[in-house]
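Record type: monomer structure entry
Structure origin: computed from sequence
Chain ID: A
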Amino acid sequence: MTGAERPAGRPTLADRDAPGLARSTPWRPTLAALLAVVAIACGGSDDGGATSGSTTEATGTTAAEDDDGTSGGIEVLDADDPDFYSVPVPLPQGEHGDLIRTQPVDGAPEGATWQRIMYLSETLAGEPTVVTGVISLPDGEPPEGGWPLFSHAHGSTGLADPCAPSVSLDGDGIHSIEIALLGGYVADRGIAIVSTDYEGLGGPGRHPFLVGESEGRSVLDAILAARQLPDVAFEERVGIIGYSQGGHASAWANQIAPEYTPELDVIGTLAGAPATEVVDMVGSDEGAGLMMVAALSATGGPYDPPSILTDAGLRALDEIDTVCQEGYRVEGPYLTGDVLTTEPWASGIAAQVPGSAPGASPVLIVHSQEDVQVPIEFSEAFQDRLCAAGGVVERRVLDEGDHVVAAVPAYEQGMDWITDLANGGEPDSTCP
C-alpha cells in the first residue's frame, strides 16, 4: 500500500502468501547499552515543548510539498518548525486514522529516519480529536509488498504534554527510551515502527492513562495514519507491540480491533509486562487511585474529581497536568474514600481490565518473575481471562531482570515471534 490511501477490506491471512517480515538477525542491545540510555534520559528536562493547547496556525514546508504547503493533502513542516503540536482550528474533516501533519526529526539511528505524525482519532465521548506520535522508517527501498509495519505502545511517562515520547526525540528526556531502543530494529531488521503518544499526550486534553479503549484507538489509528505517508509502501499485515502501560494498551488494541478497525489484518500482539490488573493497582496504591481519577475525568464521562479527592489530591491533579511522573511532588492523602467501592469510579476502573474478548490476533505475554513494579501475577490473571474468552495466548516467564531491564528481551522475543508468524509459524498456547 502506498501513501495517502486508507486501507480497504483485505483477504484473510490464509488467502495470502507471507512476504515481508523476513527473518533476520535480531538487534540485541546489551544491558550496558540500555543502562547508558537510561542514564542519559534521566538527566533530561521535562519542558519538551509540546503546546497542544495552542491554536496557532502551523507553517513551514519542505521541497517535496505541493504549492499549497502539503504533500498529497498532508501538511509537511520543516524540522525546526516549533508549531508541530499546535492543534488545527477547526479540526480537519475526515475519519479516525486520517493523517494530518508530518515533521522530520533528527537523531534516528543510522539506517533509519524519524518523522513526527499528527492524526485524527476519536475520544470515548465520540468526538474527533488529534493524536501525535512518531514513525521510524528504514532507509532505502522497501521490499516487494512494502515495509513490515509494527504499531508500538509505550510505557507510562505521565499525563502532561511534555511527557509525550515524540516531544523528546531530538533532545534529552526519559520519554524516548523505548523509541530509541526500538530504532535499532528499524535499521537492522527493515521493519517500520509507528509509535503513538496516546490521546492527550502532545494533543488536546488530559491523557486518559490506562483507559483501555482510548489507548487502543490511538494505537490502531497510528497504523492507519502511517499508511497514508506519501510515497511509502507497507506490508498489509501488521503487528502490535507494547510493554508496561504499553502492554495494557496493546492488549486493548488487539481486543477492540475487530470492531474499531476491522480492515486491519493484525497478525500478532506482544503484551510485555502488561499493567492489566488496574483494580489491583488502585487497591494497593493510593497514587494509582489518583492517576485513575485523573484519567477517567479526561474521558468526558460522569466523573467529578472533587467528589473523591482531598485538597491535596486536587493540588496533585493540577501538578499532574504540568510535569512528568518523575517530577511529582505533592504528598497525600489524595482520596476522601475508596474509589473501588464509590461509583461511578469503581465501575470506571473495573472497565479498564482487558481480556474479556479474544481480539484480532494471537497474544504473546513476556514477563519477568523479578518484576516488582508490575507483579508477575498480573500477566497470569490476564492470560487466564483471555484463555477463558477463547483467545490464543502464549505466556513466557523470564528468569531475571527488573521491570526496566526485562523490556529488552520482551521486545526481542515479541519481534521474533511476530516475524515467525508472518513467515508461516504457528502460535503456541499456554492456556491452562
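Annotation 1: Residues 277 and 378 are 6 Å apart (CA to CA).
Annotation 2: DSSP finds ten helices and eleven strands in the chain.
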